[in-house]
Amino acid sequence: MDDQQIKDDLLKTGAATKIYHELNKLRKSSPEEQEHFRKRWVWELVQNATDCCRPGETIDIDVNFDGQSLLSFSHNGKGFNKENLWSIVTQFSSKVSEESSTGQFGTGFISTTLISPNIVIDSFLENTNQGFSLKLNRSGQSMEELRQSIDENIRVIENIENTANKLPFSLNLTKFSYNLINLHDKEKSIEAINDGIKSLENHVIYLLSFNEKISSIKCNGKKYTVKSRNSIEELPNAVFVEIIEEGSRAENFLIIVNFENGSIAAPFCKGEKGLNFLKISPTMSRLFCNFPLIGTEKYPFPIILNSENFGVEMDRNGIFETDSENTEIIKEALQSYEGVLQFFAKYSLTEIFNICNFERNQSTEYKRNLRKKIDNIIFNKNIVLTNKGEMSTILDSNGKKQVVVPREGTGDIEKRLWTLFSIIPSIKIPAFEIIEEWRTIINNDVTVSDINRNYLENKTVEAVKNWFGNSEVIDWLNSYYEYIESIETTHINIVFPNYAGIFRNLKDMVLVDNVIPDLLNVYLMICPELKNCIIYTGVVIPSNMRKRMTEYTNEQVANFVADFIHASLSKEKKENRTPETEKIFNQMLELFSKKTHDWNILFPSLYSDRSKLRSQQFNEDLNQLGDTLSEKNLTVESVKSIISNENLLNVLLTSPTELSEEIVDQLQHISKNSFYAKQKVEKLIQRSIRNVYDFLSENPRYKVPNTFEEWEAEKISHTVFKATSDEHGDLLIVIRPSDGEKIIFYEDQELSALDSNDYELWTDNGKKVRQLTLGDILKTTNITVIPLRDLFLEGISAS
User: Fold this and answer.
1) Alpha-carbon distance 73 to 291, whole Å?
2) How far is it, in rounded angstroms, from Cα 703 to Cα 351?
3) pTM score, two decimals?
4) Interacting residues of 377 by C-beta distance below 8 A, sequence separation 6+
5) What is the pLDDT of residues 115-166, one digit of tens each?
């Protein structure tokens, strides 16, 4: 055996050994690793194709799969030289430096044999235009079988220049054909081919934009080319790239911003109102090194980053985190990304959230720190369109998240819940149309449970009003409770405002909706602590929640009141009755005087014996009245007919003919005690009191109790109330309705209050509330002379 034969044997044995070991690693790797290699086949071929691009020219790539048995990959770049052919057959490379050598086929190319071990290469020699067809068979299971296949390939290489197959240069193509016939795992190969083609289509617009060596890429008949590249005057180093699919109206746009060591890119489309960023697919590689680095789909970067200077991990699966050149590229990319956000922050319709979303759960310290840096950029830019129609930063000036995202359950937010939150003036939420897109970015979800726990529990209605910034709290609370009812949740510790405006647990509240209001007032006079358990005025309790509460009936309340009064009567005598008891008894007598209910049914014993409730003085007055009726020979029926005649009393009281004081006093007394007249006047008075309270409570110059109920509880008399003003301090507020363009004073307490130095007279006609001064009275009555009568009599006597 001569020296040349020894060298040949050593070459073939070494090649077979290397290929055998590489194939063995592939065949014995885990199913996950094999799946990974299968998906990489297209990128190994694309990279080799671009290595074949002639200086100053571009190449076209064509990938075609018939769906069952044959995959072909072709390009029109440079052909092979002898060195390339030896390299692909023996898997020995002549590379001696870190720089790429055109046409070298390393272990990456071997991984394509997982698609099919039978590969046919149809190409030509670059220097002679000599065409050839080389069949690689890597199906051998032993080194000897592989050695025989390599031996056949070497004979083909050695005889290429002796063949007469010369092709016109314009038709020269290099094509790799993979035959799937008779493969035992054919279905896996078909799946891998389809995945590879899909990956190529997904990345094609970036590949064409980053790698200008490629003129076009065709996938199963779909041809993609770059239509235009246009600079952006307002954004330095940026270009808009448009990639088209021939025969289709689909438009694909990228914005690319270049920096010293690379570029960043994001997809967008042209909407009706301008440019809109598009969502980046979760299967998209976030890092490119002129080609996508398969395996970087979850790399913590919000858009696509390309740099040919990346220090790439083995199998182009990622980049080295601690490599100083890599970290410097990332730093430059972050600066460019911040510039993009800054530029587009002024446009509210760009759907900028699509370039703020990336995988935030990272496994290494470096990637977690990178995520924090990116979030710091995103959170401090005015890029969130809120429910108020304004652009906002996610963080406030103190570094706290000021934008919240409503959530309930696991599904997308309902418009009803969004509306409920958007009414609250003091919080910011994203606009409804984009709220789900911002959710994972902002990561600051708020539920109705959070609202209940953080803003309502142990708070007051006034505190909630301050939180709201307005007084429309009750309407919002009713919508809030209605929503909670609709989602049928039992995990929320629901709180309601009580009579005093303090929020308490639902289980501690009682229902008194069906209790007669006047009867309830008596009950509260006896048990004022019940106010802590009664729902705040105006709050509506949904039906299912009502079922969880104790409900008081008229009968229960009446029995309690009757028991209390009977107990009080048994202990007290009329002459030493306490003011509190006297007040309760008078309230009961007033209750009984109203014929609106069958009091004799609710109070069977007390109603018939109600005379015991009257004071000793009242009974004496009643006896005197009886004596007068007997003296004048008047019957009870005749007096009742006068009292019941409301029209007669009004005519006499408003008559222009001067009546004696005695008659007027009598008529006023009759009018006051007429049931129907009193009922009508009482409604007017209650309306005016409520309207004046609402007016004063919203007037910053006046201070009144927080709730109408508290104001009522502190009143001096039926129509005289307490208040404080910035100008005069403590005041007595006298309230009278002015219906019929007149005011009539009935009570001594009113005149006493008006006789003091610190009072104000307020009136209401059902439409308007206003204060009355002495000047107003003189003007409206045209009185210019005021009879003083005996005003100074006491002073004269004293002198």
Assistant:
1) 17
2) 48
3) 0.68
4) 334, 337, 338, 341
5) 888 889 999 988 888 888 888 887 777 777 777 777 787 888 778 767 656 5
Q: Which amino acid is at 109?
A: F
Q: What pLDDT, on the 0 to 100 scale, is given for residue 93? A: 61
- For 106, other C-beta atoms within 10 Å of its C-beta total 17
What is the identity of the amino acid at 256? I
DSSP structural state of residue 758 = S
Rounded to the nearest 5°, which phi and psi values hold at 469? 85, 5
In contact, 749 and 734? CB cutoff 8 Å: no
Pair 478, 539: CB distance under 8 Å: yes
pLDDT tens digits for range 224-251: 999 999 998 888 899 999 999 988 887 8
Residue 19 in 3-state DSSP? helix
Pairing relation of β-strands 510-511 and 759-764? unpaired
| Widest distance between CA atoms in the chain | 163
Map tokens 């080194």 to a residue.
Answer: 143
Tell me the pLDDT of the chain averaged across its residues.
Answer: 83
More confident residue, 526 or 742: 526
> What is the C-alpha separation between 572 and 581, in angstroms, rounded?
9
CB 509 within 8 A of CB 535: yes
Residue 102, pLDDT > 50, answer no
Over range 418-439, report the average pLDDT: 91
Instruction: Please give the full DSSP string across 542-586, using - where no structure is assigned.
Output: -HHHHTTSEE--HHHHHHHHHHHHHHHHHH--GGG--HHHHHHHH
Could you give the CA distance from residue 105 to residue 51 in angstroms, rounded to a whole number? 10
Using CA atoms, how far residue 670 sits from 340, 576, 682, 745, 751, in Å, is 85, 30, 15, 15, 19
Residue 277: strand pairing partners: 268
61 vs 738: CA distance, rounded Å:
92
Lowest mean pLDDT among 38-52, 59-73, 559-573, 777-791: 777-791
Residue 188 buriedness (CB in 10 A; 0-12 / 13-18 / 19+): middle
Segment 164-209, tens digit of pLDDT: 565 554 468 999 999 999 888 888 889 889 989 999 999 999 999 9
Q: Is 704 helix (H, G, I), strand (E, B) or coil?
A: coil
Q: Which residues contact 80 (CB under 8 A, 6 or more apart)?
A: 103, 123, 124, 125, 126, 132, 174
| Cα 293 to Cα 284: distance, rounded to the nearest angstrom | 10
Q: What is the pLDDT of residue 793?
A: 47
Structure tokens at 126: 């670059």
pLDDT at residue 749 is higher than 80: no
123 SS3 class: strand
Mean pLDDT across 294-323: 91
Can you list the positions of beta strands (E) in 188-340? 214-219, 222-231, 238-245, 251-259, 262-271, 274-277, 287-288, 304-306
For residue 319, the cross-strand partners are: 312
* Identity at 270, one-letter amino acid code: K
3-state DSSP: the chain helix, strand, coil percent, rounded to 5? 45, 20, 35
**Residue among 44, 53, 51 at smallest CA distance from 115:** 44
For residues 216 and 226, give the distance between their C-alpha atoms in angstroms, rounded to a whole number.
8
The answer to whether residues 418 and 435 touch, using CB atoms and an 8 Å cutoff, is: yes
Report residue 477 CA to chain centroid gap.
Answer: 18
> Exposure of 614 by Cβ count < 10 A (0-12 exposed, 13-18 middle, 19+ buried)?
middle
Q: For residue 148, what are the β-bridge partners?
A: none
Of the candidates 548, 529, 338, 353, which has an alpha carbon nearest to the alpha carbon of residue 441? 353
Backbone angles phi, psi at 750, to 5 degrees: -65, -45
| AA letter at 745 | F
**β-bridge pairing 118-124 and 131-137:** antiparallel
Dihedral angle of Cα 135, 136, 141, 145, to the nearest 10 degrees: 60
SS3 (DSSP) at 787: coil
Q: Tell me whether residue 120 is exposed, middle or buried, using C-beta atoms within 10 angstroms of its C-beta: 0 to 12, 13 to 18, 19 or more.
A: middle
548 phi, psi to nearest 5 deg: -90, 5
Above 90 in pLDDT, residue 311? yes
